[in-house]
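Researcher: We're teaching a course module on how sequence relates to structure. For the next exercise, students receive a sequence and then see the predicted structure as tokens, so they can try to spot secondary structure elements on their own. Here is the exercise chain.
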Amino acid sequence: MSVTGVLEVSDEALEHLSKADDVMAKLIEEHGPLDLEARRRGRPADAYGALLRSIVGQQLSVKAARTIYERLLDLFDGTTPTPDQLLAADPEAMRAAGLSRPKVSYIRSLASHVVEGELHLGSLDEMSDTEVIAELTAVKGLGEWTAHMFLMFHLRRPDVLPVGDQGIRRAVERLYGLEGIPDAATLERLGERWAPYRTLASLYLWHSLDNAPV
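Model: And here is the predicted structure for the students to work with:
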């Protein structure tokens, strides 16, 4: 039986977050139900493609990540390269497309893990969140943040809090009047009140930054 969640803005989720947290209640009142698909738009439908794009986009702006990813695809006639194609490709050509040397190494590591059967992509939707994180972070270049994004936007798990995400941390600092950027432990404690809808809470935190005054 699949444990993939259904990421949706239900009345139950909105009511829970509103009752659990005055700050979240204000965000929900200000912004209403969110368009969750807007955050997923343009993401590859398959697990391998989603992970490949996540590595390419690490530590880049959305615009820069999209540009470099499209340049990478151009090396393979505009399509997502298979793991075998990626391993056979010239690393220098991928660097010329805008990928750093470490990222070339990371996407080749991903491809190698898939080819050698060390990454069980077909079983990820059957695993718990903790198991998925362990499976993904065994691959060089796939850290906890990438695993959290995969859980939220590919597997659509409803109760994920990406404690390492700078946007989430900045939003919490601003909205909750903290004196500095909160650490992971502080976010975990704060986020306990949002469970089992921490993914939706995270989307509201991101949305607050999208609409914050400059």
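Model: If you want an answer key for the exercise: Residues 1-6 have pLDDT under 50 and may be disordered. Residues 11-40+159-210 form a domain with the Endonuclease Iii, domain 2 fold (CATH 1.10.1670.40).
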